[in-house]
# Entry
Amino acid sequence: MPKKRGETVHRFEHEAMATRFEIFVAGKGEEYARQAARAAFGEIDRLERLFSRFDPSSEISRIGRLRPGEPMRVGVETYECLLLSARVQEETGGAFDVNFRAKPRRRNAKKAGPSAARKASSCDPPKLVGPLRLERLPDGFAAARIPTPGGRRSAAVDLDLGAVGKGYALDAARNVLLDWDIANALLHAGTSTALALGPGPGRKRAGSGWPVGLATGWPGIGVPDTLLLRDRALSGSGTEVKGAHVVDPRTGKPAAGHAAAWASHPSAAWSDTLSTAFMVMTTEEVRAFCRRHAGAWALVIIGPKKCKILPAGAIARDRRTPTRRPE
# Structure
């Protein structure tokens, strides 16, 4: 990151959650910024010990070993992460599911959108994650595996927080930096999700931000390569690097909605989940979701040279500069 107007940006990196996290801090001395970044990375490491499906002692692994009807107390972080996953799953009609590894393949996909129960009671958050029931107790939180009625075989549990845990960790790291009085920083998790805090280096006027790459692997689609991001997150998923690695949890087959998708939201956890879900959903389903959620916008690749920005003009508003709209 270059210097601008004499202001130095300090860069720190850390390996966690099978990727490389980086933190850029502007407006602070190097040693102070280093200590704050170390504290933020420590929080990420703590969350990895809770969320890792490869660590048999993590809360996620222990939940997977629950017997039908057996409850388990969990920390607030696991509870919040699973609760968010349940909400996104319901809001996207099953296009996002942290229990997708345990599901058999199905032929028909459910159309994305809030369920009837959600429409009837929009103030009550969902409490189910696959075959798990989430409970808020008077003195904490718990997850319980739901027994299958009628003596049928209980549904399997194999939770994978890979598409939400890194975003949640970035939100938590941002809170640590704020506790250290650092309000101008950029955090990212392996370049798949970036979270910007404050106006960026050397830029004091309103409407500026941290430069973040956007759709750089898809030239010629009519959108800028760089987005100025401020106080919000940007996440991306696509086939250009890893191929068809995103699975449609409704069918068990590779996602067929879009070749690539980016999602932006004030929360990194939300943007992380949505970029995955938008790969699965149709363009019209993504459009409907963004209409229901004013804080979210999306960029989806429909073909080699065609994309949609939803809602239209969202990137131009975030950049504060004119942007040529795609078809």
Q: What stands out?
A: The longest helix spans residues 30-51. The longest strand covers residues 9-16.
